[in-house]
Amino acid sequence: MRNSNFILTALAAMFMQGAYAQQPYGGCWHPEDIKNWSPETDPDAKFNRSRVPLATRFQEPTLMKANKNQYYEGQICNATILFPTCSMSPSQGAYNFLGYQPTYWQYMDKLVYWAGSASEGIIIPPPAGSIDAAHQSGVKVLGQVFFPPYAYGGNQAWVRQMLTKENGVHIYAKKLYEIAKYIGFDGWFINEESGGATSAEWADFIKDFNKFADENGDTQMEIQWYNARRAPNVEILKTHKNTSQFLEYGAAGDYRNYASQLGCTEEETFSKIYSGVQVAASGHTNFIYHLNAAMPTDGHVGSLDFFCPEEKTWKDNVRNLLGKNDTGPDAYNAINKTFEYEMQMWTNYEGDPSVIAEKWPGVSGRVLERSVVNSMPFTTSFCVGVGKHRFVEGEVKASQDWYHSGVQSIMPTWRYWFENKGNGSIKIDWDDAWNFGSSLKVDGGNEFTKGDHLWRLYKTQIAVNGGTLRLVYKASANSSVEVKLSTSSSVNPDATLANPTTTTKNGWTIAEYDLSSLNGKTIYMIALNLKTSSVLNDYKFSLGELSVLPANYAPAAIEVKNLATTSVLGNVQGDARLTWDFDYTADFDHFDIYKENEDGTQTMVGQTRDEAFYVPTFQRKDNEAYVKFIVTPVMKDM
Questions:
Q1: pTM
Q2: For 134-155, what is each residue's pLDDT tens digit?
């Protein structure tokens, strides 16, 4: 738990002058802009840098299926629009409720940041927060290099410039690697619709990119290729083991027979050849033809690349609110609808991956959930990266609408596999949380049945040698909760934790269970059993935190180094650009950032997992000469 006596903090003070800071934005460049790019000369570089490494996924010994039609082999790449315009994408989130990132990472293998235009820029690295959220769930992230068609401002001169060689080296391939390396993502999607070069020239470029990456130990780096063709480009795909291709829409099918031409196994074709699905046109629940073609119910034959599903799940809901009505009730309704649509697409209309639905099975009806929860420490606060308040251990530390995808939690593997729920429901609750900005709330409806209600949460592979499972929750009277575990590779629990040490804080119950009775075993599933002693017509259960921590866990706080701000206060208002350095460790979770005024009061202004934060405009208190900012590291013992 947090203990202020042992938290190391760093301080930065802003003194009154007459200028303002500047909102940092993500990169959106033309080739000439990056030729000499370096983080030392880019004032926004630290704000756009992700520090969360790509987590390692596992495959359980015996498949743990929510339904019989799920398989691992086929992959999903989500090529998604994350902001309305690429040149005005704020770094490190913003103070509004309309920002959104996908949260069903368990069904994705790669994320492509779909962005760019001839007028704004054609080289667009993904936002740091998007990288953070994807990486913690084991999803690779690719930036965009967009050579548009002539009708949309395409210019073959940009293609020729990108392919420039100096001393036999593709200088832009090297620069694209350097940008990906510094910012912390995994490669690029090259969208080549301008023409002006041969496949052989591009193959040579891609080889150079991966040569630079491999020589520096970044063997996960990838180029994904697209040029509006339905057939796999063997010359491109053979350039490197990681090179992949987005096939034109309508090409879903079986491409395993390309293995011999590509010099790979049939299994490896799933991570190299993706058939495009025009979700932005079809709608978020109207592409079952493509699912069936690549991922039939008797086993997968191919992989899919979803084109901009967020156009339907998010953008249609918020387009009339962005920039003018992005906080308050209208924004809340829009984002509630967004999460409902997201659930419909990735799970199904029932919101239960164990349900086999014929009309629209959802992605969960074909794709077996992936997981990275394979070691201690693990902690989740069920944050979806958007909030109305900022909570610390159940206490509201600030109230303003905000979004920051980089502080998403790892959400449950199954959303939501809940037995005997009747007409009950599970929703994201932004009005009450333990940490960050949201919790999960079970509402039993008008008649929550008596007895057991098994709620499967996480697929795991955690070896036990002592340790503690911590559960933070609120429950209705006349009810109780049990922690159920599987110690075999099964979705059926075989162990129940008992006799927790229980305390309360700010209305939440904190239950800590000793895991030593399971020493030498592996936890493959974590579930809860919500028990009621009678039928309840007002049952509520809130889930605020779930952690699995090593024995006697007391990690040392990381050191915040070189905290600085170039910002100054205005006479009435101010804003702040804060930067710092730190050494990432597996025990680190995030930073809490507070504003402390001359009168000693503190307000939380943000949270991040990276090394910079922008504090939007705030009002000065009367006659204060300075404002102090405090950056506090929070470790996984929270």
A1: 0.96
A2: 999 999 999 999 999 999 999 9
